[in-house]
Amino acid sequence: MTRPNLRLIETPEVPAARAGEPAIGIKALTKTYRTRDGDVPTLRPIDLDIADGEFVAVVGPSGCGKSTLLKLIAGLIEPTSGSIEVGGKEVVEPPDDVGIVFQSPVLLAWRSVLANIMMPVEVRKLDYASHLERAKALIKTARLEGFENKYPWQLSGGMQQRAAICRALVHDPKIVLMDEPFGALDALTRERMNLELQRIHFETKKTIVLITHSIPESVFLADRVVVMSDRPGTIEAIYEVPLPRPRSLEMMGTPEFSALAKQVRSHFYAEGGID
Hints:
single chain; 275 residues; alpha/beta; Rossmann fold; four-stranded antiparallel sheet
């Protein structure tokens, strides 16, 4: 059987054309932090389009600007130059159509699981009753039924992260940004969360951008893998993952999967490694 290869579909200089208006459009984006010791360039010009409903994983060495890129898309910080559009509108503040999952769940200890999930509804002053029904549906999807009234300290790490994902989805955003959400979990829980995230993506059809240090995780989950260079980061390559969906954990042990991961990993042998 012929092994599938990751198909290099674009370079920083020649963005791939994608059908329709992108969910996220990034053009000539740069970021330089101003410090007392001088300017710290973090991102070199980045051009990237992400299609509606697409799952994109971003990998790169520590400090290359992956999290900065996510914060820029989320409107949490301002770019130094260039532009970002979400749904055809330039990002000048946090868009309503974006949900964020951070590296740690960041759940409030004094609020129940349900109350934590409903926080975006309260902050945005949305209709409580209709979104409460959505929250309950998400809890069922995330397999947290029976834990609605529990507190974060009563949950496992994986359950806390599932609650955080529900919180990011409760106001029905079109885009979900995830900043290494499984990095602190043990290997077995992380694998289960990868399956959970794949299922949530399939059921909700959201556009997802995942920052990760794990090359196997990026290949397992993504439609495309964006490879970033060392700081100041830019896009070194973008690969399309041709593996069929749904993907099982057993697939990660196949020669086909190993060949795909090896292609991505080859960039980091040249760049000096990845965590």
